[in-house]
Known about the structure:
By secondary structure, this protein is an alpha/beta fold. 37% of the residues lie in helices and 23% in strands. It has one domain (2-163): Nucleotidyltransferase, domain 5 (2-Layer Sandwich).
Amino acid sequence: MLAVDEKSQMQAIDRTAPILPIMPTTPARMTHDYVRHGTTSLFAALDLSSGSVIAQHYRRHRHQEFLRFLKLIDAAVPKDLDLHLVLDNYATHKTEAVKRWLIRHPRFHLHFTPTSSSWLNLVERWFAELTNRKLRRSAHRSVVELERDVRGWINEWNKDPKPFVWTKTADEILQTLAAYCQRINDSRH
Length: 189
């Protein structure tokens, strides 16, 4: 099973001043202002069992790019395997061109997360790793530089991938949610 999504509008930004390193008793510091050098979108498919990632940058975020990414997945995964893709309800995933392509490629089975629940898709957790470990403190003077840097990080990730595992059962999550709802209802707000 593959968790699929796009991280759109990744910005190639360069800080107007260098990031100051961590020093004893002083946290790392960086300026809040930056120069923007363009954007890219990263399409990613996270293999839920192994944690490895198939990923590709595209400068645009349309159904054409999604189709190109499906073709990349098709080429990367052995032909004898069925492909179950978990993805959100984004309109790009449901165009007529995509539907026609899927009819011609019956090993693809799409499973959509409920509306406003894309956080259930574990590739979002992987995007958080990418953001926290690579993007948050990076600076790039061009989109090409950003894409090269992210590609390098993905290659390193795939050398020793780690699958993400839910640590709570569905019942535990629902109990926590019910307790939260009770608290906010009882607060008289």
